Task: structure prediction
Amino acid sequence: MKRVAFHNLGCKVNSYEMDVMQQNLQEKGYKIVPFDEIADIYIVNTCTVTNIADRKSRQMLHRAKQKNPLAVVVAVGCYVQTDREGVEQDESIDLAIGNNRKNALAEILEEFLAGRENPLPAGGNGPDKTLNGTTVTDINAPCEYENMSLKETAEHTRAYIKIQDGCNQFCSYCVIPYARGRVRSRPEEEILAEIRGLIQRGYREIVLTGIHISSYGIDFDGEKAYCGKSRLIDLVERIHNETEGLERIRLGSLEPRIVTEETAARLAALPGLCPHFHLSLQSGCDTTLKRMNRHYTTVEYLRGVGCLRKYFEHPAITTDVIVGFPGETEEEFAQTKAFLEKVGFFEMHIFKYSRRRGTNADKMPDQITEKLKARRSDELFALEAQQSQIFRAYYIGKTVEVLWEDRKQIGGTWYWIGHTGDYVKVAVYDRGSDLSNSLSRVKVECFLTEEILLAG
Result:
């Protein structure tokens, strides 16, 4: 039995795809072991969203080869897709597989092993075999949705469901459309079948994820995704109404323009829909948004937030913000900060702009110094902490429903930890009962930590 170790980098889509690859190898008889153990095969599911992600991908591939020089090291995914030359020249990589062949990993790997002069012995022992460069397997840009289906995940309460791949937005700082290709959507019936199977295995919550889920279905019939007639909302309604036993549906990152009066009202009519909305912003300055090639304005963004707050009592609205984008002046940064203060988020994911080779932003003048990026990001982190505290404090004295996930020791005391529908973390004292994967209503008493509320 060959021992295989996986390491995942990047987004929730990558996590989903790694779970599927791992599942497929287990079904073929491979034994999955932790990445820090000696294995016969190491598989790194790479990321390329920034230059830092590229570097981390290379580091993990090199670490695997150092761990066991006799092992087969496999690079999979986005980094492979965007830097074929670097992959081919990397002596640590034996086999490279692009984003359009992840579901065929087991077959590709077995064909590769069969083609070696000396089969790889179990346990990673035996004579060394020198390969003539890296074997690169079909990394042309993906053109069709790669069918994958998951039976179980590493988490025990919620499961991430990939519903689409690719992106047509071409933001000036982003290389993902080149790594993932154009939008390809998964058929509704396949999504429903996967969810029903996961519900039967005990999952209480599903999270719809993808590279740009707001574009779901536009490749089916050319329908515009941002006119209030989104195929994504149709899909969510079908999942809610046609999957018995599902307690919660959570949405991944949304394009701001998808949130209209109609879509907000339709979502609010679904009791199982979690009031937790990640609306990607990136900048609160229209001039900066235009340079970023984002396809909305701050007015449109604020209108979408207003629709959600009209139809949901206290929705959790989260976002991404990039500081130090090329040409960002002090005035533009001040506009962004003022806009963030005006919206009032539950959480903000703040990133310092990272130059990415192959993007338009990399060629832009007036690149911002790292020192200035750090100062601006520190300001926004302070604002984020303040807004998060205000959002959580709203629930003190209120009764909330929590999906309990696991036990955790804090300050020497054991607690059960879970999340509300809007993804606020809540704790209760561990009194000996197994609460794992159960839902219950509890009254919030106070803060246990800065990020966790304590309930009675």
In short: Confidence is low (pLDDT under 50) at residues 119-132. The chain has three domains: 3-137, 141-274, 399-455.
